[in-house]
Amino acid sequence: MLQIAHNHGVLLVTSDKDFGDLIFNRKLPTSGVLLLRLDDVEDESRDLLVVCTLRVHGDSLPGKFSVLTEETIRIRAI
User: Fold this and answer.
1) Residues near 65 by Cβ (< 8 Å), separated by ≥ 6?
2) For the stretch 51-62, what's the b/e string if a residue is b when 16 or more beta carbons lie within 10 angstroms of its beta carbon?
């Protein structure tokens, strides 16, 4: 999935924490990842939070590894 997203130049949105290992430890290329740490958030609220995050921070996310929680977003250079 990481390679497919990178080949298409799109941001990968996922809840799978293993992507951090692939990017930071294995140094695999990426166009950016938004990791959702929203396990306790109801589906409808989670979807709204993701859409709002993309609207507000969308220009800052490509090429970065970002972690979204219910309270904050952390955007980290790769």
Assistant:
1) 19, 20, 23, 24, 30, 32, 33, 35, 75, 76, 78
2) eebeeeeeeebe
Can you give the pTM of this predicted structure? 0.93
Q: Domain map of the chain by residue range?
A: 2-77
Residue 16 neighbours by CB under 8 Å, 6+ apart: 35
Q: pLDDT tens digits, residue range 4-34? A: 999 999 999 999 999 999 999 999 999 999 9
Strand partners, 76: 65
Distance from C-alpha of 50 to C-alpha of 40, rounded to nearest angstrom: 14
Query: Cα dist. 59→10, 11, 12 in Å?
Result: 12, 11, 14
